[in-house]
UniProtKB/TrEMBL annotation, chains A, B:
Domain of life: Bacteria
Protein name: Cyclodeaminase
InterPro entries assigned: NAD(P)-bd_dom_sf, ODC_Mu_crystall, ODC_N
Amino acid sequence: MYIFTEEELRQHISLNHKALSVVEDGFTSLAEKRAVMPPIMRVDVHDHNGEVDVKTAYIKGKDKFAIKVSSGFFNNYQLGLPSGSGLMMLVSATTGVPEALLLDNGYLTDVRTAAAGAIASKYLAKKDIDTVGVIGCGSQGRYQVKALKLVRNFKQVLVYGRSQDRVQAYVKEMTKELGVEVLAAGSAKEAVIQSDLVITTTPASEPVIKAEWLHPGIHITAMGSDAEHKQELEAEVLAKADVLVCDTVAQCERMGELHHAVSQGVISQTKDIPEVGELTSKQAAGRQNDEQITVCDLTGTGVQDTAIALFAFQEMVNRGLGLKIENKTKGGVIV
Amino acid sequence: MYIFTEEELRQHISLNHKALSVVEDGFTSLAEKRAVMPPIMRVDVHDHNGEVDVKTAYIKGKDKFAIKVSSGFFNNYQLGLPSGSGLMMLVSATTGVPEALLLDNGYLTDVRTAAAGAIASKYLAKKDIDTVGVIGCGSQGRYQVKALKLVRNFKQVLVYGRSQDRVQAYVKEMTKELGVEVLAAGSAKEAVIQSDLVITTTPASEPVIKAEWLHPGIHITAMGSDAEHKQELEAEVLAKADVLVCDTVAQCERMGELHHAVSQGVISQTKDIPEVGELTSKQAAGRQNDEQITVCDLTGTGVQDTAIALFAFQEMVNRGLGLKIENKTKGGVIV
């Protein structure tokens, strides 16, 4: 049994082309029906304003698969702790024995979530873009743009957030990090109107983007909504899209932007909505021309977790890292 | 983050009155609606004849709750490995941070499953019993009888299994362990007819107990079925019971004995079936007289896992045991 700490994982696992590629393969396995992915398990801990999700997927042919536990406890700031934490474990696909624990406190989730955003943009955004709008200036507001840089060149980032301090910190940090101009937008509207590509990264429960702001050629990735009550896009945004894609239709219907579009009657048919894996496996077309409006609804999937955990495990083991614990079993020998 | 190995857990955590009591409290919390318990998550790994289940439950007022990963890979014997393995983790109920990993390879599941059987017998079996029938001579065939000894005195055990070698090993081992007479039964029928209390502990997918064998006063605990295709009791056994109890009706309807009784139309109404927690919390009566036939259908619940994991954690920490790993997080300090 290998154990890796957050510190080690942050040091050695980067958001790079290889990480993007393994997550892309994960989506492809889903579309090609090579993955077994049960619905997300969720435990609500209302008395402490928290929730814990468990995600998993077995990808056929892989020798291990991940089970991920991720928590969001929204009073943690009172204790000086981040709201998100959790870990991934890798279980042998041939024996069922747990083989590794990645004590990442959500870091690998940040990486695989940003990778999914970049993959969506790779297939759905215009080839040439100038300005990227970012709504929300937390960690995903950062990771998403870093990942995007792997698939698109852009000249400018317009960031919008409700806290001026956090926006200013973002501008300062990301100007340095990205090597492009990063500016504060005066409003979400301004960010949307002036951008070729917009990423929403908020925990909003009221829409932050209105359909009337959309313009030809825009692409929007909404990655914030992962629970029934969350919503970043007006339902009409989805209806107005020429191409609407979900990471998985089943999950987005349950807890993504699609959930609200369906419940408000703005979208009635969901069975023909393509999934990200259909883009990556070329079963569905992405953007066809520079005038289309494209929208991608991301809720986060178990195949991404298995893909990134396998990638991280291999990278760490190749470097000879990790703590190895011997855990003898009564019936045989499990190491 | 604390880590405990199977060896340490086996050494220090016993199937005793205290373990029974914490599991009983777990069931009570469920009946009193103080537990949040989502449906079981299941990953089927058909290409390797395996399955992984995830169970969890948050019990209000407890400072941690368990998420348990348990696997059954039925080709493992070819590798000299037990089919079952897995681990439990404890997550803080106030911050969502993982606090302990119990690398028990299924040991704590054995303990809490046997505890549930003993609790069922405590409320459902006659006070005075002579003979206990055990169908199946694997590890639960042993643990169940050891747990039963905490709640009932009995003079004899009749064990039935398909492998004569395994039956003989059981007889030898359990005679020593229990201090009562342990005999091999010639058939499942013989074991049922001659016993006051019968425990089925098999992975059978065809009934091993027929309704026509039942006699007044008998109690049966069926703990083997935990998947749609498994069945130990003829559907009519459930219909013939004067008192039928489930660990949870929702789970038993999906994958316990109840599942078959309902699908065969032998039982039509399930909403009035009491749960084990209603017995332990005195919301429902158990056995009323020595003539009743009682049956308990157990599928295994997340509250049992949280109860036993919290118990084990406390026992281990009290003894100063476990490996402590420091796992710094970027946003705060998680130890």
